[in-house]
Amino acid sequence: MKDKTAVTRKLEIRTKEKKIWMCIISILILFLMLFPILWMLNTSLKTEAEIFQYPPTFYPHELNKKSYAAQVETGDFNMFKSFGNSMIISTGAMLIAVLLAVPGAYAIGRYRFKGRKAVLLGFLVTQMLPVSVLLTPMFIMFKKMHLYNTWGAAILADATIGIPFSILILKNYFAAIPKEMEEAACIDGCSTFGAFMRVLVPVAVPGIVVCAIFSFLYAWGDLAYGMTFILDQPMRPITAGIFNFMGQYGTKWSYLSAFAIVTIIPVAIIFIFMQKYIIAGMTSGAVKG
C-alpha cells in the first residue's frame, strides 16, 4: 500500500510539474504573440524623437497624449465618421455573407449532386486568390452597375471574402445533423423550407455566429476594397485613415500607432466577449469534413 501511495504521489508531482511548465510555456508564447501590440501601444505614447532614439526605450519617458487627441480632431479625417462607415460596411457584408452562406451550405451539406466537389473546390480556390487579382474585374463590374464610389461596392466586395469561408464551415454542421430530425419535422406538417428554418437553422446557430463574426472582422480589417471602390474620404472605412498620417516628407509614427490601437479595439472586444462561441463553433464545425 505504501508503494502504491508513493507512486501515486510521484505521479501527482509530475502532473503538477507538467502543468507548471505548460503554464510557463503558454505565458511565453502569449508574450511573443502580444509583443507587437504592446510595442505599438508603447510607440503611440512616445514622442517622435524618442521613437527614433537609440538604444530604444521600453517605456515612454515623456508621455505623448497628442497622438490620441489627433484621432478625434475635426478635419479631413474624422475618426467617429470613419467608425460609422466601417460599421455600415462590415454589418452589410456580414448580413449578405450569412444570408447567402446558410442556404448554400445547407444544399452542399445535405444533398449529393453532380458537381458538388467542383463547387467546393471553387470555394477553396476563391479563398486562395489574392485581392489584387480580383480588384480589376470587380472595378469593371461595379462601374457598370453604377455602384462605384458607394458603400454598396465595398459591402459586396467584402461579402465575397466571408461567403466561401462561411459555406465551408457551415456545410459540416448541416451534414452532421441526422436526417431523421428533418423527416420528423416534415411528418409533423412542416415543408422542406419550414424544417430548414425551424429545425436545422437553430441547431447550426453556433456555426452561424462564428461565420457572422469572421465575416464582420474580414470586412472591418479590409483596406484594399475600401480604398479602391470608395473615392470620397468622408465615405471611406476607418482602415483608409492610415494614409492621413503618412505624409510626403515623413510618417507620424506615434499618430499612426495610436490610430492602429484605436482601430483594433472593436476586434479585441469581439474576441474577448465572443471567444466561447468562436471556439465552440470552430471545433464543432471541424468534426466532419
Structural summary, described in words:
By secondary structure, this protein is mainly alpha-helical. It is built from 13 helices and two strands. Strands 1-2 form a two-stranded antiparallel ribbon. Strand 1 and strand 2 (250-251) form a beta hairpin. The chain is flat and about 75 Å long. It starts with a helix and ends with a helix. The mean pLDDT is 81.
Write the layout of secondary structure elements.
Layout: H1 2-44, H2 48-51, H3 66-69, H4 79-110, H5 116-128, H6 131-144, H7 151-176, H8 179-187, H9 192-203, H10 205-220, H11 224-229, E1 246-247, E2 250-251, H12 253-263, H13 265-285
Antiparallel strand pairs: 1-2
Helix pairs in contact: 1-12, 4-7, 4-10, 5-7, 7-10, 8-9, 10-13
